[in-house]
Design a protein that fits this description.
This protein is 31% helix and 16% strand. By secondary structure, the chain is an alpha+beta fold.
């Protein structure tokens, strides 16, 4: 029998990885490389999802602690669109996926893991990326580490955001 060891997820799945305060507010002023932050804008920041569904799974996070898109200001919404385009272009260039999932979960009952702080997800998808490990074994096999994904994505995000 083959074994897939993922020791970096132990603290997360056992609930031992709780930090004080809001994890997204705590990333507003942090070492970007240590926390996989890719870009900081006036109203949003872009970072890698620490618990990704697929390699390349990114988050766009509001700089303001608020839960829903309906509470965004006009300025926040104006900045949102171009940053979503940067995310999509980056994933397309770096991973050449068959498709892309994007969205947000507004509230805990909608599936938000951190319902009090608005964040949007975007991740690449490929035909056949859901296999028996995901379906039967309830286990995700990640073909890249977060470090590998971050180092591939960062220069593309930097180039694309410089054009904004």
């Amino acid at each position: 029998m083959d074994r897939l060891c993922t020791p970096w997820r132990f603290d997360y799945v056992t609930g031992k990885e709780k930090e004080e305060g809001c994890v997204f507010c705590n990333r507003l002023d942090c070492d970007p490389r240590e926390h996989y932050v890719l870009h900081r804008a006036q109203h949003w920041y872009l970072m890698m999802n620490l618990y990704p569904y697929n390699s390349g799974h990114m988050l766009l996070i509001s700089n303001r602690h608020q839960p829903m898109i309906g509470q965004c200001t006009a300025e926040e919404l104006a900045e949102l669109g171009p940053l979503l385009q940067v995310m999509e272009k980056t994933l397309t260039e770096v991973f050449q996926p068959d498709g892309i999932n994007s969205g947000y979960n507004g509230g805990q009952s909608a599936g938000a893991g951190i319902p009090e702080h608005l964040h949007l997800h975007m991740l690449p998808r490929w035909a056949g990326d859901t296999n028996f490990m995901s379906t039967i074994g309830e286990t995700r096999v990640m073909p890249q580490t977060l470090d590998q994904s971050y180092h591939l994505i960062l220069p593309v995000v930097q180039r694309l955001t410089a054009e904004l």
